Amino acid sequence: MTDNLARLPGIATARAYRKEWLRPDITAGLVLTALLIPAGMGYAEAAGLPAYAGLYATIIPLLAYAVVGPSRILVLGPDSSLAPLIAAAVLPLAVTDDPEDALALAGVLGTLVGLILLVGGFLRLGFVTDLLSKPIRLGYLNAIALIVVVGQLPKLLGFSIDADNLIGEVWETLKAIADGDIDPVAAAVGFGSLAIIIAFRVWIPKVPGVLVAVVAAIIVSAALGLTDEIGMVGALPEGMPLPSFGGVDWGDVAELIGPAAGIALIAFADTGVLSRTFAARNGQDVNGSTEMKAIGIANIAGGMFSGFPISASGSRTPVAEQSGAKTQLAGVVGALAVLVFILVAPGVTKYLPDATLGAVVIVAATALVDVSGMIRMWKMSRIEFGLAAAAFLGVALVGVLQGVLVAIGLSFVAVVAQAWKPYRTELVETSDRPGFHDLERHPDGRRIPGLVLIRFDAPLFFANGDIFDNYVRSVVAAAATPVEWVVVASEPLTGLDTTAVDELVDLDTYLDGKGIRLVFAEMKGPIKDTLIRFGLSERFDAGHFYPTVEAAVAAFRSRDRD
Fold first, then answer.
1. Which residue in 317, 271, 314 sits closest to 132, CA to CA?
2. What does each C-alpha distance from 27 to 33, 34, 73, 241, 357 come to in angstroms?
3. Rg (CA), the chain
């Protein structure tokens, strides 16, 4: 039991904790608090739940993830991509207008999401994060940054809009600006907060500008009596809840299973991208299945204490990173600070302007922007740039899950397309180096009379088997002297399906009809096993295989046909 506890990521981190990490972790946690409180309350309201539920969905998951989470700085909590789905699942089942009914249903939903993710983690389904390639992560993060910035602009300028997607938000924001809906006081506070954060980052980076801006905004709001002039976050509720699913029956649970599965998929897709990205940026590695189990446990813990489904935060995680967070202790400090506010000073945030919150979120989101990365991707690979652009457009215009799934699908298409028409060449001898080399790169190379050496740089499967067959036939037909042997340099052949096997049989039959022997050099054992499994051990017996290309050529030159 003790050994199992020691293997938990949080316990392992605590045992290897360095003294020099303590100050940046505590500072980052305190800075993070300024965002955890208003963001949690705001996303709870967006999900149709009481604002204080967002605090419960912040504190408990952060504490749970600190123990079981593999990522050292990932910040979990309420998220904008989940809020509409939570509302759609919970509100129709709430039989009364009592917010406690919706809250109980949301807790069940969070618990179901957590169970689904936990089971998925134990089934090792976390491999899906391996599908989230660098182009997908690059496009995703740039899209999230755009979504967050556009969503916070109205708050920064002191007005509100009603839109369901990015294009609608942009249109409504521009329309409100054109109509003169900007609140000059809120805008002054928002841009002032923005200026403070940026100024401290540029000139005094050791002092957390976010914390300075939030404290200054609270003091100014209280001193000038701005609470009735502009939008404020509002006071916190008092106390913490106990586990309760009152009023929820098994029929409700059954109704919530379907939405829970969808939310679990989105939560993990969102978390998987952020987890891998921030881990890579900090020289760390994260196991997808471990991450899936960790966010599952965090969702269960949050759901049990009047929370709702949560995932990684694309706005709060950058705040932790920028503030110098080294480990999950920053999240623990943030969670405990929120708890202290709830218990000791719930009225402080009634002086925190929404415009300041908007400035904090906007600055945090800009850390996700990587225009230079997109430019490098364009220079390195147009196909991968296209995948990044597809992920960006999909996430920004359609949705997080849909955008990521579209990009993954396009990644598979790109892989198939690359294998469909792979590089293939003839191999020749050269006078200045041993071995056999690509004719395209060594046009002065010498062919061996009577022998054709072929290399096909891809697994053979249904989409390219015919291409391989036709290529070999075309090289044989173009040979300057009658061909006696065709040697396939098979080291690049990493796969073989039934369609490709049929093509090999057809090619062997065709060549045999012309008195040409087909042999393979450097073929991998598993590929040979496939030929045997498909019943071709007699057609392609041991005499058709050579350990190296050199051995095959030597056998040809000696005409050893045994």
1. 271
2. 10, 12, 13, 28, 18
3. 31
Tell the residue number behind the tokens 């051990």, with chain if given: 537
DSSP 429: B
Closest CA to 278 of 70, 120, 131, 65: 70
Given the structure tokens 């998925």, which residue do they identify? 120
Residues 483 and 476: beta-carbon distance below 8 Å:
yes
Encoding tokens for residue 296? 């599952």
Give the phi and the psi of residue 401 in degrees, each rounded to 5: -65, -50
Higher-confidence position of 108 and 46:
108
Checking phi first, is residue 452 left (phi over 0); if not, alpha (psi -120 to 50) or beta?
Answer: beta
Q: Crossing angle, helix 498-513 and helix 465-478, to 10 degrees? A: 20
Residue range 345-368: average pLDDT? 82
pLDDT, residue 130, reads: 66
Select from 346, 358, 420 the least CA-distant residue to 194. Answer: 358
Token reading at 347: 């009225």
Q: Is 319 exposed, middle or buried (0-12, 13-18, 19+ CB in 10 A)?
A: buried
Residue 57: per-residue pLDDT? 92
pLDDT of residue 246: 67
Answer yes or no: are the C-beta atoms of 104 and 244 closer than 8 Å: yes
* Stretch (H or E) spanning 104: helix 99-122
**Which has the minimum average pLDDT: 152-166, 292-306, 324-338?**
152-166
pLDDT in the model for residue 4: 58
d(CA 441, CA 438): 5
Q: Pinpoint the alpha helices (H) of 311-399.
A: 316-322, 329-344, 354-366, 371-380, 382-397
Dist. CA 287–CA 290, nearest whole Å: 5
Write the CB contacts of 353 (distance below 8 Å, at least 6 apart in sequence): 186, 189, 190, 193, 217, 221, 226, 230, 231, 232, 233
Neighbouring residues of 198: CB distance < 8 A, sequence distance ≥ 6: 209, 363
Paired with 157 in beta bridges are none
Nearest to 106 by CA among 307, 398, 242: 307
Cα 395 to Cα 357: distance, rounded to the nearest angstrom: 24
With tokens 């087909």, the residue in question is 518
Closest CA to 361 of 145, 189, 62, 172: 145
* Sole residue written with tokens 């900090």: 282
Cβ neighbour number for residue 424 with a 10 Å cutoff: 18
* d(C-alpha 82, C-alpha 309), whole Å: 7
* pLDDT at 3 > cutoff 60: no
The b/e string for 355-393 (b: 16+ C-beta within 10 A; e otherwise) is bbbbbbbbbbbebbebeebbeebeeeeebbbbbbbbbbe
Residue 413 CA from chain centroid, whole number: 19
CA distance 208 to 50: 31
| pLDDT, the chain, mean | 86
Contacts of 444 (CB under 8 A, 6+ apart): 430
Q: For residue range 199-212, what is the model confidence (pLDDT) as tens digits?
A: 998 898 777 787 78
C-beta of residue 419 within 8 angstroms of C-beta of residue 446: no
Calpha distance 29→361 (Å, rounded): 16
Place of tokens 């929404």: 354
Q: φ, ψ for residue 292 (rounded to 5)? A: -65, -45
